[in-house]
Amino acid sequence: MQVTINGKNYDVEKNTTILKACKDAGIEIPTLCHDDRLSPSGACRLCLVEVEGWKNLHTSCTAICKDNMVIQTHSDKVIKGRQEVLDLLISNHPLECLTCEKSGACKLQDYCYEYGITEGTYRWEMKKPYFDSSNPFYNFDSRKCILCGLCVRVCDELQGTSAIGFENRGFETNVATPFNEGLINSTCVSCGNCVSVCPVGALEPKSKEKFRYWETRDVRTTCSYCGVGCQMDLVVKGNKVVDVKPAFDALNEGLLCVKGKFSYNFLSHPDRLKRPMVKKDGVFVETSWEEAYNLIVNKMKSVKEYYGSEAFAGLTSARCTNEENYLFQKMFRAVLGTNNVDHCARL
Amino acid sequence: MMTKERMDSIKEVLKPKIVEKLIGEDKVELRGDEVVLKGEYYKKQVRIALKNCDIVDPTNIEEYIAFDGYYALYDSLTKKKPGDIVEEIKNSLLRGRGGAGFPTGRKWDEAYRYQADKKYIICNADEGDPGAFMDRSILEKDPHSVLEGMALGGYAIGSDQGYIYVRAEYPMAVKRLEIAIKQAREYGLLGENIFGTGFNFDIELRLGSGAFVCGEGTALMESIEGRRGMPRPKIHRTAHVGLWGKPTIINNVETLANVPVIINKGYEWFRGIGTEESPGTKVFALVGKVENAGLVEVPMGMTLREIIFDIGGGAQDGKEYKAVQTGGPSGGCIPADLIDTPVDFESLGKIWSIMGSGGMVVMDENTCMVDIAKFFLDFSVEESCGKCVPCREGTKRMYEILDRITKGEGVEGDIERLEELSETVSSASLCGLGQTAPNPVITTLKYYRHEYEDHIHNKSCPAKSCKPLIKYFIEDTCIGCTRCAKACPVSCISGKVKELHVIDQSMCIKCGACYDVCPVKPIKAVSII
Fold first, then answer.
1. Which residues contact B104 (CB under 8 A, 6 or more apart)?
2. CA-based diameter of chain B, in Å?
3. Which CATH number is B281-364 given?
4. A41 neighbourhood in chain B, CB within 8 Å
5. Interface size between A and B, measured as CB pairs under 8 A
6. Which of B522, B511, B527, B525 is nearest to B481 (CA)?
7. Partner A contacted by B104 (CB < 8 A)
8. Per-residue pLDDT, A224
């Protein structure tokens, strides 16, 4: 099939959305409620495009390309439509960018900048404020919520928990837990995937660090909590991890669990062991890796000689990779000569 | 099992008895061989969807059979192929009576030709427009016509399961439907092997929970599936991917009530009524400031004048007729000088209004058009599902502007802002609710712009309706009868018998009670300024 986008012809596959066709053609279309992994919603109305022969503007995320379709992605009418949508959104959004943690990574902020929306024409009645800080890992601030529905859909369609949904209608619509009993009393498993997809500052981690996204750099790493191997980007300010973002181009496809998403504070915790310790005269003292390994090897040898192989038992961790666990059991079976080996994930 | 012979014998015995009884009560008369309701109000009406209403007993299936009920289903199942029914409806040019006027036959054809292991047919009985009760009357007074229409639709598209989505606020309709479904099952007209033809079809009721937006087809399906009623993005036709992902036909109550009659009498007969592009009749709920309010069913193409004046008797209390709103909150206000417009899908569209589901609200000289726009928009604001931005945020802002204008707080630029918002909300909203919500504002701005300007620039309401902009004042012609002082609920009128009375403006709540009771003629001593 062929479509014309902004005067240029492109070949597209059958059943391609206009949004996808534009993306493939390198044309940027603003979206707030779209996520390739989720069913299309058509809620934010920002990805509007003009299609020749169609009366109204159409959301490109929900419109399928037809042969010989003529599409305009940045006509005056489209720009005006997007500006109006952004104007309506920002009119009902607190202008707290100076103190908002999301500043610098907020899509609403970016698009308002791109489309020249300064403060909102209709700053009259605002959304009723509702805060939910009952979850130990993240906060919800309804004032900043733009009701894109990504959190609700990711919780339902990808996480499979369905802890949150919409309540009320029209201007009073809100994201809420059943019977408004708070996140802590809901079925929420604190995976934080809602926080990861929130395009604005409505869902924010309970960060202990103050940082701006432009001060940070991303460091790709593998989550060390279990053997799945989720990829994530550590958001690092100076030499400190201040946030974690799931990687989209990896097997976890933009998802993490509560550990990967939120449990990184141990990295720079003062109690964290950074060097091997050896007990001397009843007190642990720092030592070198060489001395520590020597001590272990010597003790193993003497125990094996004196008591035999069955005196050993090894317990490893699900936080190790499969390869590490393999090596561990290999060492116990082949080197120490025992099958007494297990790991903590048997629980 | 029901047979033709059994239906014939029911008809033969029962029909003369019913007609005799109704004629005895002076309720009906014969128009040719048709039994129609008697009276001036019904003279100009042509009743197809309402043909049995107030004539048959809705709780007795035999009375429906006596008036040719289920004959269309019998003939179709025994003599016609599903494709023939689709062709018949296509040829009839029957258009959806729920509001949009999409050709029913074309819709059916889509589902008929789409291969699937399961198909559904839904009756949309979530009638929600303020002041509209067309569907309610059919459901309460002639539920079997809807069941038969659905069964015919089911046979045509190849569906064995129907749902009626009816609002819970219609308890009588729900009850009558329950009785009708139960009786139809008992008589073998629903269920398995209908008329011994091997055709299976059953109907279940689903009750709405008060959301107007659930009248939108895809939101209705979400609701039946047990989710929050929010419209789906329009990626596929519901005739291909609808309820539970299966091909689904969704028709309005009135549309379905037309189907058995068309099958019985043929499409040529149907096309002989109404206009070329909009054949048949339409039921309207004629309400508001009209002398004879009620349901009217008239051929398409009848002028507004005939409906409002000849049937409705014009504006109430001898007041001057000002405008009519058609199509409910999604419709437009049509001014008095367009009263000779024929009522059909095309003609109403040309003057910026819509047919809608059939609401027809008549307004008199004391109706403020800004206030009316505000009233309908308030409804849309309340009923927006909250999913898409233009409808959720835009209608609210439009309402806020209108509210300020009617309070005398309108400012320069408000009209332009309203126009811009109308454009955004109507062109960028997800579903029909949002796309049509600005219509009352667009049409009143088009036809009554001066009223908006008066409110904003002169802080006055020409219809003398917006309370913050009017003052009650007693003129020198007062005869001192004291009636106004007695009627005043806040006792802010003072004056002795046979002397000029005075209103204390600081206390007046502008209820208008003094104006209503003032007996001075021909011009009341109480004036509104």
1. B89, B94, B95, B96, B251, B255, B259
2. 86
3. 3.10.20.600
4. 233, 387
5. 108
6. B525
7. no
8. 83
Shortest Cα distance from B384 to chain A (angstroms)?
A: 4
Q: According to the model, what pLDDT value does residue A346 have? A: 61
Which CATH number among 3.40.50.720, 3.20.20.60, 3.30.1390.10, 3.30.70.20 corresponds to the domain B471-528? 3.30.70.20
* Residues of A within an 8 Å Cβ radius of B: 40-46, 48, 55-57, 59, 61-64, 81, 84-85, 88-89, 91-92, 121-122, 124-125, 146-147, 149, 165-166, 168-173
Scored b (16 or more CB within 10 A) or e, A204-234 reads: bbeeeeebebeebeeeeeebebbbbebbbbb
Domain residue spans in chain B? 4-11+58-271, 281-364, 369-457, 471-528
Look at B394 and A42 and tell me if their CB atoms are within 8 Å: no
Is the domain B369-457 a CATH 1.20.1440.230 member? Answer: yes
Per-residue pLDDT tens digits for A188-221: 999 999 999 999 999 999 987 899 999 999 999 9
Give the DSSP H/E element, type plus range, for residue B347: helix B345-350
Contact assessment for residue A174 and residue B389, using Cβ atoms and an 8 Å cutoff: no
Per-residue pLDDT at A306: 96
Q: Which domains does chain A have, with CATH numbers?
A: 2-88 (3.10.20.740), 127-206 (3.30.70.20), 217-272 (2.20.25.90), 278-346 (no CATH)
Instruction: Centre a 10 Å sphere on the Cβ of residue A100 and count the other Cβ atoms it contains.
Output: 17
Tell me how far apart the alpha carbons of residues B433 and B218 are, in angstroms, rounded to a whole number. 12
Residue type, B187: Y
For residue B178, CA distances in Å to B40, B173, B174, B201, B476 come to 34, 8, 6, 16, 64
Among chain A residues, the shortest Cα distance to B418 is held by A122
Tens digit of pLDDT for each residue in A227-270? 788 999 999 999 999 999 999 999 999 999 999 999 998 888 99
Of all residues in chain B, what percent are helix, strand and coil, respectively (each to 5)?
45, 15, 40
Is residue B41 within a helix (H) or strand (E), and if so which, with residue range? helix B40-43
Alpha carbons B288 and B364: distance in angstroms, whole number: 9
From the list A41, A56, A124, which residue is nearest B233 (CB)?
A41
Name, in order, each residue with C-beta under 8 angstroms of B375's C-beta and a sequence gap of 6 or more. Answer: none
All residues at 6 or more sequence positions from B476 whose CB lies less than 8 Å from its CB, including other chains: B500
Q: State the average pLDDT for chain A.
A: 94
Architecture of the structural domain at B4-11+58-271: 3-Layer(aba) Sandwich (3.40)
Q: Which residues contact B421 (CB under 8 A, 6 or more apart)?
A: A84, B394, B397, B398, B401, B438
Q: Do strands A341-343 and A314-316 pair parallel, antiparallel, or not at all (unpaired)?
A: parallel
How far apart, in Å, are the Cα atoms of A16 and each of A8, A42, A61, A66, A157?
17, 16, 10, 9, 21
